[in-house]
DNA sequence: GTATCTGCAAACCCTTTGCAATAAG
DNA sequence: CTTATTGCAAAGGGTTTGCAGATAC
């Protein structure tokens, strides 16, 4: 419940990152391919998402973009589904009553540990999970599209504070 | 988005189930232990939850209880956290924008397969998951309290309909 | 009798949407 | 020019809350 604006963590001055440029370019291509227009707002949002590390919600994104050339929440809400379709963003439902998102890095998959006391999120990955996903899906006749694994409990810090 | 009232599935005339009586009794004990009062509303809600199979949301619970001696949504919302604390109920966040719940049966753990086309939920269990949960938590210094594993994709039926 | 609990309705919060103005192609 | 997109503000939908009356103990 603590940090509101600080939870939007940027890579430091990485605006010239060649990777960023490439990803933005492919986002533009995606927009075109869907018949969507390339607007300043969509680019701002995509850039913010691409430069972000960690999880964030709409409010944090909104506050982050607030500067001189802000973007309305309506536009953020309207752009998020596009970003998700484009594969740049994923919704991660972190049980706090509303949606949280995170950037998708390539195909690498990770899961979350959530501290029930302080709310912080930690990440980990288990290589077996995608395999397990496939196995179970197959067993049940599913064509699987994804999975989510989350663990909650007390983080090492909050554990001590008790 | 189909069945609204039908998704609340009861065990057939199981109101005399000795297990039910026992569980209700332990819920009453729980209420007392917390200094809460035993009210008709709380008993109705607990009974409905105990007799239910599968997942449901507040609206379904509300509609189910609607009969002669209904319970207001406010009371349902106020009782749910108590039921969760008592260990009878668990929140299962099934990505439909709002909360869904299910009864907790003993300590047995199961996970969900969700069809992204028809929305139906299937269950499965993987004995290794609780072990994995412990291992990962330990690695990260967590004292784990629970986990959730969910897979989504196309169920066998929707797969054919494509 | 007193404090808790209930139902109602209003308040809240996140998200979506209608609409007129703006900007992309 | 034409049509998609934007921002605003209002509407939505689930959940929470203040309050007066009802009820458990």
Walk me through what this model shows.
Two copies of one chain form a homodimer. The first copy, chain A, has 162 residues and is an alpha+beta fold. The first copy, chain A, has helices spanning 18-33, 40-51, 58-65, 73-86, 128-139, 156-160; strands at 9-10, 52-53, 55-56, 89-92, 100-103, 111-115, 121-124, 143-154. In chain A, a hairpin with a 5-residue loop joins β6 (111-115) and β7 (121-124). Chain A is globular and about 45 Å long. Mean pLDDT of chain A is 87; it is low at 1-5. The first copy, chain A, has six helices and eight strands, in the order βααββααββββαβα. In chain A, the strands form three sheets. The first copy, chain A, has a three-stranded antiparallel β-sheet. The interface between A and B is medium-sized, with 32 and 32 residues. Chain A binds a DNA duplex (25 and 25 nucleotides) through residues 35-42, 57-59, 71-75, 77-78, 97-99.
